[in-house]
Amino acid sequence: MARTKNLLSAVSTVVLAMVTGCVTETGDKVGDEVSEEEVADDEVTESVSALTTTPVYPSNHPRIYLGPNKARLTTALDSNTPAAVAFRSKVDAWYAGTSIWGFQAWNGALMSQISGNLKYCTKAVAVVETQVKAAETKIAVNAAPEVAGDSYLQIGEMIGDLAIVYDWCFAQTTSTQRARWIKYANQAISNVWNHTTAKWGTATIPWSGWSVNNPSNNYYYSFLRATMLVGLATRGENTQADAWLTKFRDEKIVNQLVPTFNADLVNGASREGTGYGVAMRRLFELYDWWKATTGETLASATPHTRKSMLAFIHQTMPTLDKVAPVGDHSRDATAAFFDYHRDYLQELMQIFPADSLSRRAKYLLTNSNTKTMSQSFMVGYDFINDNPGITTTALTGLNTTYHGKGIGAVYARSGWDKAATWVNLIAGPYTESHAHQDQGSLMIYKGGWLAHDANIHSRSGLAQETTAHSLVRIDSGGVPIKQVAATVSKVVALKKGTGYVYLSTDVTPSYRGHAAIQKVHREMLYLEPNAIIVFDRVQTTSGTTQTWQLVSPTAAVTSGNTATITNAGHTLKVTRMAPSSATVSNYAFASNTAFTGGYRLDEKVAGGDQRYLHVLSVDGAVTSQTSAGTTAQPGVTVNLSTGKQVTIKFNRDTVGGSLTIDGVTTTLVAGVQTLSEGQ
After folding, report:
1. What domains can you pick out in the chain, each with its CATH number?
2. What is the β-pairing status of strands 531-540 and 544-552?
3. pLDDT band at 643 (very low <50, low <70, confident <90, very high)
């Protein structure tokens, strides 16, 4: 999966001060610093859990991972479990010469360890030797080898593979060979962490140092993987090994990643979205392998680890075949549930095998569209992470609403069955390049998409612009005003009551003080199971235009102030209560060659101090709606197919209002409710 660079190589303000107007690898200046106060405001900063054990480094090969796992894996292989049979088949095909994209030599080294057949190690050593010889050829002429490509992105896979084969096939390597491997690996790792003085041969070949200090970026986990595995594999045989272990554990995990995650990623997940964010599976793998090797549980040093499992469950669509399409999805724009997502959960389940969330994650995987790895190069992970001791527990019982404070997302659903309705609203930090200009955007799912992001229909999976998302777009001079990286929008109110979720957001900061924009607020009332009321406060200067957008997979059928979207056997009726008039149109994304389909309902009005009120009804949930309230507190009364009557009135200019359900009134005010994991 290709990876582009982070716009703002943002490190934790707890650890390092951010540099205002930092320069990217391509020399483009982006954004100003995000202050600690901006990031931490309205968030509960979580403390670091004490590390109660000290790492114990094994001295005899094999050292990495196999100590507590070899007997389990050998038994599985001898018992011909389904995962073991699939693993043996792929390794045998690889050994026989079949070219398998992405397949790594450590798979063969593992087969030798658990089967006792050294032929697999013979080939694994040969594969790594090919890598090293190719690198030595480049180094001999003072050129950078392949491992340095794309800012050393592949160092985790390439040097990590070398380290594991070195350890698991130690007896099949010569002392001279091992010395050459170590020399090459040491130089690659040194170059990562010392980017300005990076050397190959006698040539200094500096690089940008992209994300070496940004634990929230996918590159960082690759750097960690190479550093940790070489340190563990070569300790006692490599003069640099102890330094690599100190770099990995003390400097990068304990003193940088943990404080960053505790400050910035409250409640788990990744600011890179659900596409590139799935790269955290490699970090979780390192936690698991570190504990298996040293006995130390680094994973529990931050609550982020466990909470990422809960976050991902909420980010998975009720049909269990898709994930929330948040951020860039260059591998697959449709955000289909894939092997990487399966591995993400499996790695977390290995770390927390006795946790109730692991039982629920296993239920999700068992009932998903990816019950086993679909790609040959991923089959090994199904094998090593197969844990029959984890039983399944249905998702029912989990809270149907989740607030990802660190990533700026709220997810709500009507239930945990596959027919449930799922709703998402985004408002939070925009600090990574794989994130989109989607602050304030809305998505709705029931059996399929009813309102979503046009990125799903893009050819690249990289449609980041405001025009691709369901929000209020602001144009100046006919050009959309961009949301700006290194900004933090806010959830200013969140309340979950019986049968409803109320949410208020301020996404004004995402425009970083643009002179044409004074206010952009979005409030939402989700009435379970199938009604959503959306209220927008947007204030812009004269000469601008405002367009209320709703992106959908099929074209809306419009009639007066209503629009109806139909997809996957379900309908979404959108009724505009305010403003009273707007220029309504349907935009077909396929008119742009960057897209293959998708539509956008546009309601365009002139700039100024505007208010928008919409009632969204799934499958006839709202039988009627009438205006309610006053100029100072506009609102709507809806009658639901369940027999309930609901009136909500929004304060015209400030957060809050009132909610009346069957005669019982609740005052809506600012303040974010802390949600429990269970109902």
Report:
1. 36-384 (1.50.10.100), 401-672 (2.70.98.70)
2. unpaired
3. very high
